[in-house]
């Protein structure tokens, strides 16, 4: 089946303008997702995962701005849409589950009220029809006794149930794309598994494409088709899950893989955290952002920014080790 590009972010730069200077949170990032795909975005805290997606949704805080780049979705450049048009994209074409559910659920409205409002506004459903549909959606995200729960407020729900409500709101208008920012990080393992299962089920039933931001490489392995590894506001490596796990071509990806337990390996392996810290995004280094922490760093890595190398079909790495003249190292 021919692949259809759903979202394509090209050379996105997003900065925050603060009293101490410009924070280059997203610095020349290109990401795409095809229809029907699940794309993972991984990377340490502060690498720009959320900011890249908030730029796409037009939801940056006041001091944040898309400085350059394109965000192409259904034939439009979202980076150039006005607030009214963006509101309609957000309500009905792209749904987002936010990192912190309590900041995005409105505490003073019942959850039924919040879903119904979205349906009335974006689907123009009459109120009674919207309420009927809200009940259906709550049931579809496995919220028990939806007819009772629909009249409750966000604080009356447990963490896992709140996350289901967030998913319900995000999918209620049948979006083509669902962006899930750390949807399970705050939850315990069993609930985490249930939420991921629910997302898989929704995907296969509704055909929604999913961008999943996570710290957890185990989650990526279980859920995603492709992965983008982000580091200090840039894409370090991208490829299929299989390429990234089996043939990582960027030392940062390798570092991430070594820092998580691998249940598939028989012998007990030692986990190695990546030493050091990411650079200050107020003063990003001239060369590779990872050079200071990289065991393979060469002189050029400190002086020049690595271009993106095609290392195999659909597999890219922004690391000089992939240059034809670089010394060969076994990663
Ligand atoms: N409103 C803001 N003002 C200034 N800097 C900001 C603002 N919001 C985010 N940043 C900075 O942008 C960078 C990227 O942040 P972002 O939230 O995208 O990271 P992340 O990869 O989502 O991290 P995490 O895994 O912790 O969620 C960070 O350095 C952060 O401090
Ligand atoms: Mg984040």
Q: Can I get a quick summary?
A:
With 331 residues, the chain is α/β, with parallel strands linked by helices. It has helices at residues 49-57, 83-93, 101-104, 111-123, 127-140, 146-149, 159-171, 189-206, 217-223, 241-246, 251-258, 299-303; strands at 5-18, 21-34, 38-42, 64-73, 76-77, 94-97, 177-181, 209-213, 226-231, 234-240, 309-312, 315-317. The chain has one domain: P-loop containing nucleotide triphosphate hydrolases (Rossmann fold, 3-Layer(aba) Sandwich), CATH 3.40.50.
SSE layout and pairing:
Layout: E1 5-18, E2 21-34, E3 38-42, H1 49-57, E4 64-73, E5 76-77, H2 83-93, E6 94-97, H3 101-104, H4 111-123, H5 127-140, H6 146-149, H7 159-171, E7 177-181, H8 189-206, E8 209-213, H9 217-223, E9 226-231, E10 234-240, H10 241-246, H11 251-258, H12 299-303, E11 309-312, E12 315-317
Parallel strand pairs: 3-8, 3-9, 6-7, 7-8
Antiparallel strand pairs: 1-2, 1-4, 4-5, 9-10, 10-12, 11-12
Bound molecules: adenosine-5'-triphosphate and magnesium ion.
Q: What does this molecule look like?
A:
It is a single chain. This protein is an alpha/beta fold and 331 residues long. The protein has twelve helices and twelve strands. The protein has a single domain (5-108, 153-264, 271-322), classed as Rossmann fold, CATH 3.40.50.300. 34% of the residues lie in helices and 24% in strands. The longest helix has 18 residues, at 189-206. The mean pLDDT is 91.
């Amino acid at each position: 089946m021919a692949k259809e590009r759903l979202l394509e972010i090209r050379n996105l730069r997003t900065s925050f303008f603060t009293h101490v200077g410009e924070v280059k949170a997203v610095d020349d990032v290109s990401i795409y997702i095809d229809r029907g795909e699940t794309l993972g975005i991984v990377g340490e805290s502060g690498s720009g995962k959320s900011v890249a997606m908030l730029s796409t949704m037009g939801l940056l805080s006041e001091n944040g701005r898309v400085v350059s780049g394109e965000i192409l979705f259904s034939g439009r450049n979202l980076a150039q849409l006005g607030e009214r048009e963006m509101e309609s994209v957000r309500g009905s074409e792209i749904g987002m589950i936010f990192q912190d559910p309590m900041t995005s659920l409105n505490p003073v409205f019942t959850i039924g009220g919040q879903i119904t409002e979205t349906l009335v506004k974006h689907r123009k459903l009459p109120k009674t029809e919207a309420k009927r549909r809200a009940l259906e959606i709550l049931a579809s995200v496995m919220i028990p006794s939806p007819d009772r729960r629909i009249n409750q407020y966000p604080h009356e729900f447990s963490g896992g149930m709140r996350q289901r409500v967030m998913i319900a709101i995000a999918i209620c208008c049948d979006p083509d794309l669902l962006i899930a920012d750390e949807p399970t990080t705050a939850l315990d393992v069993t609930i985490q598994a249930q939420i991921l299962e629910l997302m898989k089920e929704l995907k296969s039933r509704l055909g929604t494409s999913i961008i999943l931001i996570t710290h957890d490489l185990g989650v990526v392995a279980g859920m995603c088709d492709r992965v983008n590894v982000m580091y200090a506001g840039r894409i370090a490596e991208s490829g299929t899950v299989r390429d990234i796990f089996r043939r990582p071509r960027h030392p940062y990806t390798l570092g991430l893989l070594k820092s998580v337990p691998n249940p598939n390996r028989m012998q007990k392996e030692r986990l190695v955290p990546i030493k050091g810290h990411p650079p200050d995004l107020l003063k990003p280094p001239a060369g590779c952002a990872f050079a200071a922490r990289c065991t393979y760093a060469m002189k050029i890595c400190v002086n020049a920014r690595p271009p993106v190398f095609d290392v195999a079909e659909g597999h890219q790495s922004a690391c000089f080790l992939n240059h034809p003249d670089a010394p060969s190292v076994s990663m």
